[in-house]
Amino acid sequence: MISQENRKATRLTRRYRIKSGVPTLILLEGASGSVVTRGGVERALADPDGVNFPWRPSHPKATLEDGPLLPCSARDSNEPMLHEELRHCIKGVYFSAHWCPPCRAFTPQLVDTYQRIRERGQNFEVIFVSSDRSEESYNAHTESMPWLRIPYSQEERRKKLATALDVQAIPTLVILDPRDNIITLEGRAELLEDPEGLNFPWTSRLVNILTEKYATSLHDGPAIILFVASESEECEIQFGESVLLPAAEAYRRDRPDFDPNYDDPDGALQFYIALDCETSDILREFVGFDDAVPLLTAIDIPRGVYAVMEDGAEITLDSVQQFVDGFRNDKLPTNKIAAVQKSTKSDKITD
Question: Burial of 17 by CB count in 10 Å (0-12 exposed, 13-18 middle, 19+ buried)?
């Protein structure tokens, strides 16, 4: 049995994306609890007298504006761009180097997702920030990149941007909104979980596409999940969002304490669209569903139970809201999750 203390530690590790082990020092804003800096240890070592405490990173906008952005070798246009021209874009700031094997493995994955997102008509641009040790290596690394780059000669600019975005290692992909505010520091992890970019720009949304990352969070609280076919993914996603989002928004209004940036919401109701994929198949088998779609479900793994919308009922805004209300008020008939039943029977046999 996992102790309450270990559960709290796991939640904090997830929430603040702690990967570097100990010692780790993350400074938080007193009232809001938002992150001031993740690199507290490094900042304290560099500034032992605390002159610049709390070591708040500067806004990346000033550094991005400090000169032109050059096209990489594989980009269609050879014209340099000013940061002002990207004012309507979601931006990915990509910190990488040719000498780094994980970077060389991730770059083609980023190229593929970048192209998929842009083909759907979304304004997305990537800016490469090099950690290469020579200009020759830098040039080799940019040959296959179809986006923009900060010139290799502008080393100080590259360093300032890494500090402003609190970059601790490479490869790192930071996603910025059109005003250059941080959406997520974990763009690489988000992309690896969602290579199609279906949840792009990976903001904290009320309704998400169910991926392996989100499937893990199902063990922490209940979820409303709409299983759909994916013959036309965009249509299925649009339909799913249209019927789930109003219910999710209503639930959010009832829960003013809900923190959308908290990956482990401690029992808060989650809302997902489950496409036809391996993650959905595993969950279906775990719970004990057949292959019927569309299928609206409420799954509560911590309690070991699930509910489904009655067979033949049309999935509409009203029927989804009624289903969610019924589940929240314990008025829906529930069944035991198949995997839980098996575990219970096994325990009885063992006893």
Answer: middle
d(Cα 239, Cα 297) in Å, to the nearest integer?
Answer: 16
Residues 172 and 64 in one domain: yes
Higher per-residue pLDDT: 276 or 345: 276
pLDDT class of 14 with cuts at 50, 70, 90: low
What gap in Å lies between CA 109 and CA 173, rounded to an integer? 12
Query: How do beta strands 90-96 and 124-130 pair?
Result: parallel
CA distance 21 to 323: 43
Task: Provide the percentage of residues in the chain whose pLDDT is more than 90.
Answer: 52
Residues 250 and 319 in one domain: yes
Give dist(CA 164, CA 61) in Å, integer: 9
The three state secondary structure string of 48-67 is CCCCCCCCCCCCHHHHHCCC
In Å, how far are 58, 275, 277, 295, 302 from 308, measured between CA atoms? 49, 17, 20, 7, 17
- For residues 59 and 180, is the Cβ–Cβ distance under 8 A? yes
Burial (CB count within 10 angstroms: exposed 0-12, middle 13-18, buried 19+), residue 66: middle
> Residue 42 domain-assigned?
yes
Task: Say whether both 272 and 340 belong to one domain.
Answer: yes
Euclidean distance between the first and the last CA atom of the chain, given in angstroms as a whole number: 18
**pLDDT per position as a tens digit, 84-137:** 999 999 999 999 999 999 999 999 999 999 999 999 999 999 999 999 999 999
Residue 202 lies in a domain: no
Q: Under DSSP, is residue 146 helix (H, G, I), strand (E, B) or coil?
A: coil
CB atoms under 10 Å from CB of 283, counted, come to 22
> Which range of residues forms the domain containing residue 310?
208-347
Q: How many domains does the chain have?
A: 3
Q: For position 170, which CATH number holds?
A: 3.40.30.10
Same domain for 142 and 186? yes
Q: What is the mean pLDDT of residues 310-324?
A: 93
CA–CA distance, 262 with 254 (Å, rounded to integer): 17
Q: Which helix or strand (DSSP H or E) is residue 335 part of?
A: strand 335-336
